[in-house]
Amino acid sequence: MQENEMLQLLKGRFGQITQEEATKAAVVPKALLLDVADFLKNQELAFDDLHCITAIDRVERIELVYIFYSIEKRHTLTIKVYLAPDDLKIESLAGLWRSADWFEREIYDLFGVYFLNHPDLRRILNPYDWDAHPLRKDFSDPDFIKKPQY
Amino acid sequence: MALIEKIPASKLIGKFPGGKILLTTSENILKWGRASSLWPMTFGLACCAIEMIAAGASRFDIDRFGAGVFRASPRQCDVMIVAGTICVKMGDCMQRLYAQMPEPKYVMAMGNCAISGGIFYHDTYSVVKGTESLGIPVDVYIPGCPPRPENLFFGLMKLQEKIRKEKNARE
């Protein structure tokens, strides 16, 4: 199924979904994420593979990007969730796709997004005793040496 | 060339005129033995490890210098070849491994990352800026990104030279 067809289907099912202009990704409100994810996995779209979760720090918000793939139907879909920087909490998808477990740990480690109901929300790459989140735009550390601008 | 001149430490050994007896001090023979059988630790951290593996394989053959017995345990090692980028998490392990090595122990920093952080010096949050910043003393620095096996051998020969010139080897 084409991406715009999927988007029409999602818009018909959940009214609040919009499309991002530049990337054509579906923007899902934070509160709807679990319902949308359940719909994507268990209804006709049959997304059995959560391919990737990543995050982008836009300073005014943090965007979570979810990329789904269906092995059965061979189509793919990208959805985005916007998070306000003062409320970085979102429901975990680890109950629906096992692959979400480590993706979400990585995002927690690098961006500090807190996933609710995650089975094991620890840092995955960096030392456990850190409290900074290094891929945030406002990250700073005494050992972090900025590249001089020429 | 007489056989005696082929021995790397020949200048340290005096030949008894006309005889088959070699005269030397026990310290010299100890240092000669120590320099000629440096057992390195299997400690490849990044792409420099590939060059170290190449140096260990038959084309370059690090065994010619007596340093071909890569040990998997720090307790059996003489030299730690820090081959690659040191991450913050690996830094803790490295300090522990270095502490576990028996004396006398030597460290070679192979490649720019192990020397100073290399290309990861700027704008990185997870890379240690060189072996020395962990408090581990380095005997030989081998620059390069990565250094060729020949560079590694040159560093190894420098280390052997350093060991042969050591004072108070028996202490």
Characterise the protein shown here.
Chain A has about 150 residues and is of the alpha/beta class. In chain A, about 20% of the residues lie in helices and about 25% in strands. Chain A has helices spanning about 5-15, 35-40, 100-110, and strands spanning about 20, 25, 50-55, 60-70, 75-85, 90, 115. In chain A, strand 4 and strand 5 (about 75-85) form a beta hairpin. With about 170 residues, chain B is an alpha/beta fold. Helices cover about 35% and strands about 10% of the residues of chain B. Chain B has six helices and five strands. In chain B, strand 4 (about 105-110), helix 5 and strand 5 form a beta-alpha-beta unit. Chain B is elongated. The model of chain B has no long low-confidence stretch (mean pLDDT about 85). The interface of A and B includes residues 126, 132, 134 and 139 of A.
Q: How far apart are the termini of chain A? A: 49 Å
β-sheet strand percentage of chain B? 5-15%
Largest sheet of chain A: 5 strands, mixed
Largest sheet of chain B: 3 strands, parallel
Largest interface: A-B, 13 and 10 residues
List the defining traits of the structure above.
heterodimer, A: 150 residues, alpha/beta, 5-stranded mixed beta sheet, two-stranded parallel ribbon, 7 strands, 22% helix, globular, B: 171 residues, 3-stranded parallel beta sheet, two-stranded antiparallel sheet, 34% helix
Question: What's the layout of helices and strands?
Answer:
The complex is a heterodimer of chains A (150) and B (171).
Chain A: H1 3-13, E1 18-19, E2 26-27, H2 33-42, E3 49-57, E4 62-69, E5 76-83, E6 89-91, H3 100-111, E7 114-116
Parallel strand pairs in A: 2-5, 6-7
Antiparallel strand pairs in A: 1-2, 3-4, 4-5
Chain B: H1 3-6, E1 14-15, E2 22-23, H2 26-36, H3 48-56, E3 79-83, H4 88-100, E4 106-110, H5 112-116, E5 140-142, H6 149-164
Parallel strand pairs in B: 3-4, 4-5
Antiparallel strand pairs in B: 1-2
Helix pairs in contact in B: 2-6, 3-6
